[in-house]
Each structure stands twice: as structure tokens, then as C-alpha cells.
Amino acid sequence: MGMQMTTPMSSIENYIKQQIERKQAAIINAFEYVGVTCQNEARENGSYKDRTGNLRSSIGYAIVVNGMIHSTSNLDQNTGGAKAQYYLKKLASQFPQGIVLILVAGMQYAAHVEAINLNVLTSAELMAEKLVPALMKKLGFAQ
Questions:
Q1: Distance (Å, whole) CA 29 – CA 34
Q2: Where are the domains of the chain?
């Protein structure tokens, strides 16, 4: 007596698709947490003198899914937020596959401030490098 499959193949495919979507949503939620945490780190612990508030308010993040911006932080459009949005869109196109977290400072002089050994995004980047692997491991992705 042989075995016979009674479950329709479409049910199996739907189940697999649902599981992939569930994992993808969990990753996006984890990246949202990391993005908010790192944005707060960068804004609160930047080691530069905050003269205008423009640089701090231009710091943000985006979650990119298959080259498209899925979500972004709330960026002040009156300061560097518009420029940060521009940079985020430009960077998003460089990641056509997968889920990516991007941290950005929208002011043009942010790189100069970092170059003179002042912290703009460095501490946030280091924090992300610790948080992401830990969260991925908790979600069941082997490292």
C-alpha cells in the first residue's frame, strides 16, 4: 500500500507564503526597533556642539524592502529632513533585494563633523551592529 498526498499543493504553497510573510514582518518590526533606538542614540549622544539643531533633527532611518522604502522615521522637513529623505531614496535603490536598515544624517556637513572625530552616527552604527545580530538570533535566524 503506497502513500498518497491528499493535501492540495496550493494549500502547501499558501502555508509557506504565510510563513515567509510572518518572518518578514518580524524582521521589519525588529529593524523598526533598532532604527528608533539608534536614532535616539545618535540624537542624544552626538559629541558635537549643537548650534542650530539642524544636524540632530536630520538624523533618521529607513527600512527598505526589495529596493523600496517600507517605512521611515519622522524627519523634520524644515531642517535637514528633506535632504535625509533624498539620501534615503538614493540609498534604497542600491538594495534591490532583501530587507535593509539605513541610518542617515541629512545635513551635508555631517560627514565633515564625523571626519574631525566627532560622533554623529558612529555610536548609532555600533549599536546597530550589536542589536541586529542579537535580534535576528532571537527570531530564529542562525548567525
A1: 9
A2: 13-138
